[in-house]
Amino acid sequence: MTSIATVPIENPRAQCIVMLFAALHEMGGCHSKQETISYIREHHWFDIRDEDRKPYPSATTSEPRWHTLIAWGRKDAVLAELMFDHPPDQWELTRRGIEEFRSVRAQYQSGALEARRSYLWSLAFKQWLVPSFDLRIATGHARRIRIATFSRFGTATFARESDRPSLKTFSSNPRPNQSLQPTTDRRENFHMTASTLNFIAPLASVSGG
């Protein structure tokens, strides 16, 4: 399976890493966290919903959770040596990071990977990443993915049939507020367990750098 920064490409964490890499790749050089997030926001790349603007309950700051997700992507990239381990607030891709992003982008553009499956990405980002992206196909798929996906941090594969949510759940609230919370009780969230929880406590310092 294709991955970026060792995270499987269809995992929501990987979706954040791709947006992060795209922003740094386009800006070039070294930038602060705020500059990077501002670039993503100004280009409307992250499909921001109301819950994304709220901080995590465990956070010690009022930082929107989508900002925190991008910062977690930076941490993954540093651990994978795809971003430099610069002092706090200096974000920059390594040569390997640039090459890995270009490789992933090429796979999306060739059709080997499907941008329509990445539900944290806005239509604007999907069209930027894949200029030939078909909005009609995306619209139909978006309806199906709401049914197939348990939450923003779940997948379409369930360990037990009893884990699968009912259609009523999605018709009333397709993106529940708690969906972005990193949890350890879902098997599919293997990238949101030990390594993530270890740095949630010092959240302010992580998301700041």
Describe this structure in words.
The chain is mostly helical and 209 residues long. The protein has one domain (3-208). The chain contains 9 helices and 2 strands. The chain has a two-stranded antiparallel ribbon with strand order 1-2. It starts with a strand and ends with a helix. The model is unreliable at 141-151 and 153-207 (pLDDT under 50). A hairpin with a 2-residue loop joins strand 1 and strand 2 (7-8). Helices cover 45% and strands 2% of the residues.
Overall pLDDT score? 77
Task: Identify the overall geometry.
Answer: globular
Q: What is the H-and-E element order?
A: EEHHHHHHHHH
Strand content: under 5%
The helix count comes to 9
Query: What is the topology, as strand order, of the major beta sheet?
Result: 1-2
